[in-house]
Specification:
The chain has 5 domains: about 10-165, Glucose Permease (Domain IIA) (Distorted Sandwich); about 175-340, no CATH class; about 355-420; about 425-540, Sandwich (Chondroitinase Ac, Chain A, domain 3), CATH 2.60.220.30; about 545-620, Expansin, cellulose-binding-like domain (Immunoglobulin-like). Helix content is about 5%, strand content about 45%. The model is unreliable at about 1-10 (pLDDT under 50). It is flat. Bound molecules: zinc ion. Zinc ion binds next to loops.
Length: about 625
């Protein structure tokens, strides 16, 4: 079991009240530690019968220690501090009790801002165990009504509430489920089904031996799983917290997601799941191996790294044991057959093109279609002053495949049979030092620890369809922390005001996403955690304003911006600044009726800005 730092068994059993419908059956739409794209989920998502307005109960005696209102993220959020040192957090709320609501309204009016984040003094808002503190909602980045409930320790680490206390409100008799297995080669000599490739298998989850025959592997390999856990009475696919891997009976890997800090979560999630598969297909495979750069605290014995070494031709037995917070366990058994690399393979590789190259950590994999059956062609790699001919490492039914260890040198170009392909490699960047690079088309600053592992940096810019495209590294390589890119756009490619320039990230599938940036010293400077391609665009359109309701009882608008997004807004009624609520996902802003002591009358003036200071104004009158 996880360590419970100072909790007696007594408090473990019954310290917390379940915050929604206590004493009744409840259901979870999410569990603590489950994988999201940018973080591990910090708490329980408790279902609220698909509606808003359910009473939310204080999980224990204490006081309101913090109130945060935000149009995104956690939305309307309340924090309670308890005598045992823990803090409980209640997020995506619809509204608070009258007393708390009045406190918030006062603070917002003083600050003239809808967004607040207030630490409240201890004596101000004391709370009794089990008292109603708020009403559940769908505020912030929530995509459906629910309560997000967290327990944190005094150092702001989130704790798994179901490990602290097995609430009777949740029933769980269902063991975790595995839907897919993947095996990834970990060195240039590794093979999975005879090739240097990551391969996936769909598992028959009903069987503990879900694969009909052994998988042929060689060298260092890593296992990955697509897994979920379910609680009784709901179809939601929640996270699997505890996984152990036994190789020939020996424990080789053990993860237990019981607590983490927010920085740890954000900075390491991209090492925990297989990043390229998440980026390409939004699937998060739980890696059952620990690579260099992974600083997560989920591993009780970090010396057991889970990298499986197979250097014989024998059969090896793998047992994967998955356990949930209610101690339901599922065992999955696999067999790995050791098989040394061979030169000729009668299967097809997954390459869609006739030639190309891929980066797999230290390994550069190159491939080209075979010319004459039975003949193997050489590729040449050009590296500064030398030219090296490479013979295929192996041949498949259709392609020759070549492998190059990037630690031995970075090729400038690859000469395939059909011509040379430039690689744009600059130099290897190590994770433990800061780097600055000054380049003709963009400068780059990589702070210390922004990388997980050595980055073989590629950099170039070209023009496609009249637009500059900037390429920085491989989009399938994860970053731990943001790097700074200073784009140097060609002046003649853009229209008027460089202050209206914004950077857009081009996703793996070519979809553009707003990143932003600031114009400084003739450069557009952005901080980003994505390697890959960027373009620059001009945001010259102001936000749109659509009046939904202009009444004495209140006003309501829908606001939208095409590119850089809503930067801010101010509402004046009869010249007096008036507080607005804001829900970013719907673009709705409105005055809160609870706060209107006197009916609105006179001029209504709304000004809305985008993030590059384009603005729009709406003026109307409310008759007395
Ligand atoms: Zn949540």
């Amino acid at each position: 079991m996880p360590i419970l730092f100072g909790f007696s068994d007594q408090t473990k059993v019954n310290y917390y009240v379940f915050p929604i419908q206590p004493g009744q059956a409840n259901y979870l739409a999410g569990t603590m530690g489950e994988l999201r794209s940018t973080h591990f989920h910090g708490g329980l998502d408790i279902k609220t019968n698909q509606r808003e307005g359910l009473p939310v109960y204080a999980a224990a005696e204490g006081y309101v220690s913090r109130i945060r209102i935000h149009p995104r993220g956690y939305g309307n959020t309340l924090y309670l501090t308890h005598p045992n040192g823990t803090v409980t957090v209640y997020a995506h709320l619809q509204k608070f009790t009258k007393e708390i609501q009045q406190y918030i309204h006062k603070e917002m009016t003083i600050e003239k801002c809808y967004e607040i984040d207030h630490y409240v003094e201890k004596q101000l808002l004391p709370i009794k165990r089990g008292a109603i503190i708020a009403y559940s909602g769908n505020s912030g980045s929530s995509t459906g009504p629910h309560l997000h409930f967290e327990v944190r320790d005094a150092d702001e680490n989130v704790l798994n509430p179901l490990f602290l206390q097995q609430f009777n409100e949740i029933k769980d008799h269902i063991a975790p489920v595995v839907t897919k297995l993947a095996i990834t080669p970990q060195s240039i000599w590794s093979r999975v089904d005879d090739q240097f490739q990551r391969k996936e298998w769909t598992l028959n989850s009903a069987s503990s031996y879900p694969l009909a025959r052994p998988i042929e592997v060689y060298g260092d390999i890593g296992l990955e799983l697509l897994t979920f856990d379910r609680q009784d009475g709901t179809r939601n696919r929640n996270g699997t917290p505890i996984i152990k891997v036994f190789v020939d009976g020996n424990l080789e890997f053990h993860q237990e997601i019981d607590r983490f800090s927010f920085a740890e979560s954000k900075e390491n999630i991209r090492m925990f799941y297989h990043y390229p598969t998440q980026k390409k297909y939004a699937k998060r495979f739980n890696k059952l191996y620990i690579e260099d750069g992974n600083e997560l605290s989920f591993y009780p014995d970090k010396s057991k790294k889970g990298i499986i070494k197979i250097e014989d031709d024998k059969l090896h037995n793998i047992k994967i044991e998955l356990t949930d917070a209610y101690k339901n366990t599922r065992n999955v058994y696999l067999k790995l057959q050791g098989k040394p690399p061979i030169k000729k393979i009668y299967q097809k590789p997954s390459f869609t093109k006739s030639q190309g190259y891929e980066l797999h950590q230290n390994v550069l994999l190159m491939y080209q279609k075979k010319s004459v059956v039975g003949q193997s062609d050489t590729v040449w790699i050009k590296e500064k002053y030398r030219r090296l001919g490479l013979l295929p490492e192996y041949q498949t039914a259709t392609h020759d495949v070549y492998l190059w260890d990037l630690r031995t040198g970075l090729p400038d170009s690859i000469l395939f049979r059909q011509g040379a392909v430039p690689t744009h490699f600059q130099f290897p960047v190590k994770p433990n030092y800061p780097y600055s690079l000054y380049h003709q088309v963009m400068d780059l600053a990589i702070p210390k620890d922004a990388l997980y592992d050595t980055l073989y940096l590629q950099l170039y810019a070209n023009t496609e369809n009249g637009q500059e495209v900037f390429s920085i590294g491989d989009p399938l390589i994860p970053l731990r922390k943001p790097i700074t890119i200073s784009f140097k756009p060609k002046a003649n490619m853009y229209l008027v005001d460089p202050n209206k320039l914004v950077a857009m990230y081009v996703s793996y599938w070519g979809k553009k996403k707003y990143v932003g940036g600031t114009w400084h010293n003739n450069r557009l400077v952005v901080e980003t955690r994505e390697l890959g391609q960027y373009t620059l665009e001009e945001d010259i359109l102001p936000p749109t304003i659509q009046a939904i309701r202009i009444l004495k009882s209140g006003v309501k608008f829908k606001i939208r911006d095409n590119l850089s997004g809503i930067g801010g807004f101010n509402l004046y009624i009869n010249g007096k600044w008036t507080l607005l609520q804001y829900d970013k996902k719907s673009g709705i802003i409105w005055t809160n009726n609870d706060d209107a002591n006197i009916p609105f009358a006179g001029t209504v003036e709304l000004v809305v800005y985008d993030n590059v200071n384009n603005f729009n104004r709406y003026i109307n009158t409310i008759q007395k």
